[in-house]
Structure formats: structure tokens, C-alpha cells
Amino acid sequence: MSPFAVSIASIVLLALLGLPVGHAMIASSILYLMLAGLDMGTAAEQLLNGLFSSYILLAVPLFILAAELMNSGSMTLRLLAFCNAFVGRFRGGLALVNVLQSIIFAGMSGSAIADAAGTGKLMQKMMTEGGKYPPAFAAALTAATAVIGPIIPPSIPMVIYALVSDASIGFLFLGGVLPGLLMGLMMVIIVLRTARRRDFPVEPPVPLRSLPKVTLNAFPALLMPIVLLGGIYGGATTPTEAASVAALYALLVSALLYRSVSLKSVYASLLGSARTTASIGMLIAGALVFNYVVTVENVPRTLAAWLAGFELSPLAFLLIVNLILLVLGCLLEGTTILLVIVPVFIPTAQALGIDMVHFGIVCVVNIMLGLITPPYGLLLFVVSSISGCSLKEIVSEVMPFLLALLLALLIITLVPEVSLWLPRLFGYKG
Length: 430
Description:
mainly alpha; 21 helices; about 0% strand; globular; transmembrane
């Protein structure tokens, strides 16, 4: 076996034995360097250069911290009350609230897991209280709506994609708005159809005279995406600086305006975000080292030359990438795919003239759908833990939503303007 084949086999074996993927990639990359007779210190050099020269990576822990602070305060509760006031009055109203809150919350956290673990717990309780909705349906809907989080800006996966592709984070964020809204619309259609067929309850309507008060209570929380995105596209902040503003804004609103956090809860938020960041950080570190191995082996160029032999059209290439990423999304963690698999496809995509913002949106949507695709489907395990439902029950309920989201992915793939119209409106020349 070649050193590269041994390295790949080592990653698979170590991962199967339970070692975190990031650690497995670092260990296997060092093994490759040793077998290939290269300087093993290169691993440390690549790791340090990658981490310390990537300013945009600072946005990841800051967006995670912002989401943690929102969940520890009462911002989430006020947002749910606001959503319920407008759509709760329709049949299946609480299910529609679940979709709407995910669209709004997506403009704040940038993380599907943060969405499901934060507002998901509250929505599960609200929907199942008094036997209004089957617990498995509520859990499946929470998992499906959570995938919108990293599509509508801000988005942690898009920050990571920008790291490996050199695409503009600002334009990637803009490119995710319409695809995210399209995915939300697809789920609204499924909810309305299911509510009518299964006769889901109608919530008591919130009186019109109460709407101004509910809106005012939620207004500081609703203002957060405007502050965040306004700073980026107004030229006042970089995406990383905007992430720090988001975290500070969440803290100030929760502590000074809503008075809903204590020093203990702030400490818990800092601790939770540090743990999540460390987990993502190890994956990034491992991928940086392993990507050096991939580059030494000339894998991207070899793959590009191999695919060129098939004379694929840009559309055929995108459909093949969709299929590969959907299959891998069932088995691998999303960050690993973005850091290890996607960079291999980028040279071919560029050679075929595929826009890097459009390609990034397609990749991120694929990877998010992997979070609710059996057998791995990380979000399915998260909501199973929250709801107490079995994985089998949740998978059965999530399938209509997954099929609707796959249709949305097909539209995003076939119609690049869905991703590119808004960036071009703001001056994108790609």
C-alpha cells in the first residue's frame, strides 16, 4: 500500500475505534509524513499557519457564544411569542411557529445544532403539551427547520467554506438568504398539508390590540440580525467583527434590557461555547494538516483531470457533487466534509466556470440536509435526546420534510440566480 492509502485506512480505523475525527486526521497525517520520508514537523507547521493566519475563523466561536447567550436569556421566549402572535391562529399554528422562529433565529446563531438545542427544547414542550401534536412529529419538524439556521446568514459552515475556497463571506451570506427562505416555504407547505390531513389544533388567536406589545417586547431581539448584517454590508464591520458585535449585543440585551441572565448563566454560556469551539477547532486543525497531505499527493489536480475526461457540463458536475455530498452527509460530520471533501472539488468547479458563491451555497445546503438524513443524521440524535422519541419514529416523520428540502436543493442547483440575485444586487461581479 502507498503511504496515502495507509493514511486513509488509518483515519477510517481510528474513527471506527472511537477516536475523534480531528485527532484521527492529525495522527494519520503524521503517519503519512513518516512513511513518505517527509519532515514530521510539517504537521505542526501547517496546523499553526492555518489557525493563526485565518482571521475569519474567529467568527466561529463568537457566533456560537451569541447563540448561547440568546438561549440563556429570554430572547428566545420573546421571539416565540412574537411568531405565535402572527401564525399561531392558523391550523397547525404551533408547527408554523416552529418554522418561522427557525427562519428568524437563523439570522442570529449561524448553527443548526444551536437552533435545535435552544429553541427546539421550547418548541417540543409547547407542541406536545396537552397532547396537541405527536412528540415524534414535533421532534422531526424541529430537526428539519433547524437546517435553515446555517443557510440564512450568519452561517458557521459558510465561514468554513470561505476558508477553503477564498470566496467572499459577505456575498456568501447574501447568497444564502433566498435559498433559506425557499427551504422555509417548502416546509410551510408540508406543515399546512399535514395539519389539514391530520386535523392539528388551532391556537387561540392573540387579540390584535396585543400585537404592538408583543412586537415591542421582541423588537430588541428582532433587531439583532439587522445590527449584524447592517454592519457587514454597510462596511462598518468585517464578518468577524460583526460576530463579536452579535455576542456583545446578545449579552447587553439579555442583561440590561430583559434582565434575564445572571453571572452564573453567563459563565455557563462561555463554558458551553468554549466546548463547542474546541470540538470544531480540533476538526479544523486535523483538516488543515490532512489537506497538506492531499496537496502533496496532488489529489485535487488528479481528480480534476479525471473528471475532465468525462467532458461533464457544469450542471452534470453539480448533480454528481450533490449525490456524493448527500451520501457522505449520511455518514460524516458536516465540518469534516467542508474541510476535507469540498476542497477536492473546487478546482474542477472553477475550471468549469461554476460561480464559487453558488457552489458554496449548494455544498452547504447538501451538508445541512445530511444532518437529518439517516443513518447518521446528527440532528436526528439531538432531537431524539430532547424529545425522548425513538430514532425510528422521528425518521418516519421527517421524511416528507426531507423530500421537500431535496426539491428545494434541486431548484437551488438548477437555478443559480436563486443564490446569486441578492449578491449581484449588492455589487457582486462573479
